[in-house]
């Protein structure tokens, strides 16, 4: 055990995350989970993240999308949080262009029910090369699947449910190398249970209480996955932890 001492200050909160080498794994992509939890691990307050997030966490949440080829998210989070198209500050867009990436990452929503608002801006106000994607399964309701195809790029990844490995392989086939998963806990837990999470960036917010919803909900019987601590950053009372999957 040792005491952590205060190190050099970080002028760009994204810089420690940009410096990471993310090598696509066997499915062709690297998967980072980016989540915030309270001191008791709660992932939401009143069904949303807003009160849980601090100003430095909210800033990092927006910036972390700079690293993504695609932002992957469960449908309940989209419904609860009212997701819209990704926008980034002009200087970050310029940096992405210089790196040969699209101006902003596309969003991919995981859903079996396809109970989504197709008139929302994330479906109607995205550039043609970054249409929002819906990752679903073959047994989805045919009428809703037709509606989804009209509004979004549809990725079929499983028969009765979205299989996490098939979902990631489908995204990788579309050229997405870095997948940033913004939750929610149920979908993140599916990735964890399938041992497909390469990196977890976890903000610890200095509050307790909120919803009985942990940051990751793994299905019963899922194996335990080891992670290695890669960095610890602090801004005021907010802690930023970065872990990578331990050696396989
Ligand atoms: N603290 C954080 O960092 C953070 C991050 C994100 C969200 N949240 C909070 O978490 C809550 C939402 O999270 P959640 O865990 O309830 O839901 P979620 O993971 O966002 O979404 C669950 C939904 O995703 C779809 N899904 C998940 N696995 C699937 C599979 N294998 N096959 C097919 N579809 C699948 C289903 O959509 P359908 O129902 O459409 O079939 C399911 O209902 C909200 O309160 C939100 O504010 C917190």
UniProtKB/TrEMBL annotation:
Q: Which residues form the Bacterial bifunctional deaminase-reductase C-terminal domain?
A: 31-236
Tell me the pathway.
Cofactor biosynthesis; riboflavin biosynthesis
Question: Gene3D superfamilies from the xrefs?
Answer: Dihydrofolate Reductase, subunit A (3.40.430.10)
What keywords were assigned to this record? NADP, Oxidoreductase
List, in alphabetical order, the GO biological process terms annotated in this UniProt record.
riboflavin biosynthetic process
Q: List the molecular function annotations (GO) for this entry.
A: 5-amino-6-(5-phosphoribosylamino)uracil reductase activity
SUPFAM superfamilies on file: Dihydrofolate reductase-like
What is the protein name for this chain? Answer: Pyrimidine reductase, riboflavin biosynthesis
- Native organism is Cryptosporangium aurantiacum
